[in-house]
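Weekly structure sync, notes
Attendees: PL, DS, HV (note-taker this week)

Item 1: Phospholysine phosphohistidine inorganic pyrophosphate phosphatase
DS walked through the input record. Source organism listed as Conger conger. Sequence as pasted into the shared doc:
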Amino acid sequence: MAERDWKECIKSLKGVVLDMCGVLYDSGEGGGVPIPGSVEAVKRIKASDLQLRFCTNETQATREKFVAKLKRMGFDISVSEVFSPAPAALAILKERNLRPHLLVYDDVLPEFEDIDKTDPNCVVIGDAADKFSYQNLNDAFRVLIQLEKPVLFSLGRGRYYKETDGLKLDVGVYMKALEYACDVEAEVVGKPAPMFFQSALTDMGIQPQEALMIGDDLINDVGGAQNCGMRGLQVRTGKYRPSDERHPTVTADGYVDNLAEAVDIILKYRGQ
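Item 1 (cont.): predicted structure, written out as tokens:
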């Protein structure tokens, strides 16, 4: 990334939004490992005059468990700073009086404890990992196909993500299968939905043009933020692929090798 291209943008920033998996850490066995320099980078942002929030499509744990894992890695982070899809989906379900059939990872089920799930009239799909069996997908299909107006919520639409042992298929792949089978368009809760980014901006009390999104996913992190009016920076960690920098429709406002480099540049031009 050419630093001069960022000078004016950086000086007008009031807040930073970070993706988590692939930016802060790589997930995997034992909870994953921090990406070198990321723990200190978060500390440096928090010590600056910038506000900081985290937007993640993590749907394999409650926010409380997820944050506890990151704290064990050394990150300075609190639950109130994290925006994730499950609580947002729960709010929508309650507002619309919907009863979900859940195809999600077991550890995220507690997020939906206090909502009626009998005689479901919609389906909520998240990153269910090994629970994406034929039987479980077919059960979700049967719920949707019998509804006069099927409603499908997807907690993100990522194609894949990175764990310590390699790339893994993400929820978007299975979302597309249900969309195709039931002739329905899923309502995405999480990135890249503009409302998801806006919730973090509203919490910080700033406008989109005053915020920078830093992520490893060109489409959902960078492109989603840009569609919301934010700037989007891609790190070359996590799921980043060299071909991202030649993508035909989405171009990041800048590219950096990792979060630590991004923070170096931001704070340099802010004189901090």
